[in-house]
Amino acid sequence: MVETTTKPGKVAMVGTPCHMIAAAKLEKSSDILGETPIDIKIGLFCMENFSYSYMKKLLEENNIDINNVKECRIEKNFLWFYLEEEKLFKIPIEKAKSCIRKNCNICMDFTSELSDVSIGSVGSEKGWSTIIIRTDKGLELVRNAEQHKYIKTKAIEESGIQIIKKLANKKKKENLEEITKRERVGRPVIYRRQMPPEKYIEEVLKCQFQDLKGDVIDIGACVLCGACNYVCPEEIIQIQDRKPQLNGKCPEGCNLCYVACPRTYIPDDILSKKADKKPLVDYIEILSAKAPMIKGQNGGVATALLNYTLSENLVENVVIIDKSDSEAWKPEAIITNNTTDVIKAAGTKYAACNVFTPLKKLNNGNGRV
Ligand SMILES: Cc1cc2nc3c(=O)[nH]c(=O)nc-3n(C[C@H](O)[C@H](O)[C@H](O)COP(=O)(O)OP(=O)(O)OC[C@H]3O[C@@H](n4cnc5c(N)ncnc54)[C@H](O)[C@@H]3O)c2cc1C
Ligand code: SF4
Ligand code: SF4
Ligand code: SF4
User: Fold this and answer.
1) Half-sphere exposure of 125 (CA within 13 A, CB side)
2) Does the beta carbon of 15 sit less than 6 angstroms from any atom of ligand 4?
3) pLDDT per residue as tens digits for the range 236-283
4) 277 vs 19, 205, 263, CA distance in Å?
5) How far does residue 44's CA lie from ligand 3's centre (Å)?
6) Which of 17, 144, 210, 269 is the most buried (most CB within 10 A)?
7) Residue ranges per structural domain of the chain
8) What residue owns the CA closest to ligand 3's atom 6?
9) How far is the CA of 46 from the centre of ligand 1 (A)?
């Protein structure tokens, strides 16, 4: 077994591929943004995400109260809603297209290419998760969690890997077409304009919130991750009406929100265009995995790995996405060191969520946003 060391103040996070890009930017830009607390990145597969309010409206139009939804799944090109009294409502994804967030149409990453471990359902049998181990840290985490019986793993079928590659390629191809289309009509997709790190610094240091608004928020590129809100030293960004808004005046020379955002410029050493041609990019191993004691969306592996990091003191806290107590199925990010919270947050909420905001509360408050 590989020995692990305790990292005080460190955090493990779970999130979609765009969250992983933001986390990688925070890490790489530590000379500008300060050291990031995020030490372990557990990424999810993600083909698309939905607007919470549009999804709720879509259900209402079909006479379904979101409060009666017990479980939500995306399988075989359908959105499945499991309702009370064993009733089921399903709708083709094609018909739910109006609920898909516009920023998802310019997203090229299906498998959380910048995470330590990526987890999804595609490729494995029902009740199991597929995991792609991407870094040595991810390998150590998975191996040790298995050794301590948090998860069990088995080889994945070659046909499973081929399905994941096919879907990853499909997303890259279709969304590259959309990016090209947007660029042609003057809606630049800034995050795709990669550049050498030196030029990147020169470019981003000129920008403030108004540039973030023009380059990302107003043109439908914001993924609503909350990274801008987390890094703002003046605490003048609020996430309102489904987008970040400025509530104050930026001091001269500040550019932190622009630096942190996963949809502004990204230096080549974080995201390279070579990734366009490699469906899963680099990885160490792909496996099927299951956490026998957890009821998760698939194999419960994300929950089990997060709880392993807490129980073994690899990190002090984890950022997870729970369901709001007041609005059914609305995702709500929390930071916690309690494994019971992590188990409660198992399962996928198909809506965008500002996962970075709770990091602001590391030193004050209860960590719930
Ligand atoms: C928006 C979205 C789209 C997805 N699309 C696909 C797909 O197309 N194909 C595929 O194979 N898999 C997809 N997944 C991943 C899949 O739904 C499972 O999350 C994954 O298989 C892990 O299952 P598990 O049982 O191991 O996780 P669990 O143990 O159930 O844990 C799930 C974790 O996901 C986190 N989470 C829940 N909702 C969100 C959210 N909105 N944003 C960020 N984190 C969240 C929770 O904090 C929890 O820790 C998607 C996930 C999301 C959030
Ligand atoms: S931008 Fe959309 S599709 Fe891409 S990872 Fe984020 S939520 Fe998923
Ligand atoms: S103060 Fe800085 S981080 Fe905050 S909104 Fe203004 S430019 Fe962005
Ligand atoms: S504008 Fe803010 S919330 Fe939107 S993607 Fe950028 S950092 Fe995330």
Assistant:
1) 5
2) no
3) 999 976 799 999 999 999 999 999 999 999 988 898 888 899 999 999
4) 22, 31, 20
5) 29
6) 17
7) 11-49+101-180+264-362
8) 250
9) 8
